[in-house]
Amino acid sequence: MKELSIISHKLLQKGMKAAVLGTILENKIILSQNGDLAIDCGKIIKQHAPAFSGKGGGTPVKAQAQFPDSEKLNEFFRFVTGHLGN
């Protein structure tokens, strides 16, 4: 997970507004944003991950969650990326 955090930080430094990265090796996801967006990463994880059998949390600018399997991780990944696109 540390690697995802480093990659996420670098992407935000390079100008991305938000990043959603996941690993099927650990069934974890990280959601981060540069602070300019009106989203709360921690709230998104806390409110929506349980619907996909996940758990986690974080701050308004960075949060992470863990899921029981890669299928649930992928479902949540699609949900979050769709949520950020709106």
UniProtKB/TrEMBL annotation:
Aminoacyl-tRNA synthetase listed as a keyword: yes
A molecular-function term among this protein's GO annotations: nucleic acid binding
Keywords, comma-separated and alphabetical: Aminoacyl-tRNA synthetase, Ligase
InterPro entries documented for this protein: DHHA1_dom (IPR003156)
Domain called DHHA1: residue spans: 2-81
Keyword Aminoacyl-tRNA synthetase appears in the UniProt entry: yes
Protein name (Swiss-Prot/TrEMBL): Alanyl-tRNA synthetase
